Write a sequence for this structure.
């Protein structure tokens, strides 16, 4: 089966990117990362890509007058590298229809909460502050908006009485890494299907082990 050609967008440390790279190396993810793009030149995620011999490209959103203009530059780079699917892995920018129309139903995001709870930044802090006993992470298709779009997979994580933002984030990340890789492997196998039903209802069929 053909490898899934991924473009991974990062803004920060890139541990989800690293999980993808390691799964590819281990043979548990039938994919190749064609390019890693960051809006921040100093992102550790770019360094991880370089170390793995993968094209690492910094495109600063500050160089563009609008979100759309920035996305035009992203799309050009992703097309140049012949990417099929786009993974937002800690990408701290809101994407527009410019990107979403170029990769229809092929843009996914990982979020450290059980959406629709706690969208936006600092989801882990929001969970601690609210006092929930269970949180988790979500992999979803991206649509315009903040952390919105049809949910592909979720995994719960218990919030322990002694947890603070840092300890919860650490445990969440370990689960994120597994879930994201599992979802991408199902995508690679052609097993992730987005159905559009009546009343605009969308449902994703996917089987995870
Ligand atoms: C993760 O918690 C992800 O869910 C969120 O941003 C964080 C990125 O972490 N969107 P990393 O850069 O992959 O280490």
């Amino acid at each position: 089966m053909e490898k899934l050609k991924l473009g991974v967008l990062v803004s920060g440390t890139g541990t989800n990117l690293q999980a993808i790279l390691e799964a590819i190396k281990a043979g548990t993810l039938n994919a190749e990362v064609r390019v890693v793009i960051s809006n921040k030149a100093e992102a550790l995620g770019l360094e991880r890509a370089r170390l793995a011999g993968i094209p690492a490209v910094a495109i600063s959103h500050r160089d563009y007058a609008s979100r759309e203009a920035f996305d035009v530059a992203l799309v050009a780079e992703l097309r140049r590298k012949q990417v099929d699917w786009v993974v937002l892995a800690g990408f701290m920018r809101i994407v527009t229809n410019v990107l979403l129309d170029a990769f229809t139903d092929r843009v996914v995001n990982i979020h450290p909460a059980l959406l629709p709870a706690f969208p936006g930044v600092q989801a882990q802090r929001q969970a601690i502050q609210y006092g929930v006993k269970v949180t988790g992470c979500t992999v979803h298709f991206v649509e315009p908006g903040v952390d919105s779009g049809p949910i592909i997979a979720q995994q719960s994580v218990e919030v322990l009485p002694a947890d603070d933002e840092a300890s919860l984030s650490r445990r969440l990340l370990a689960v994120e890494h597994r879930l994201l890789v599992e979802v991408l492997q199902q995508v690679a196998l052609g097993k992730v299907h987005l159905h559009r039903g009546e009343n605009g209802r969308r449902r994703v069929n996917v089987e995870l082990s």
About this structure: The chain has six helices and nine strands. The chain has a mean pLDDT of 96.
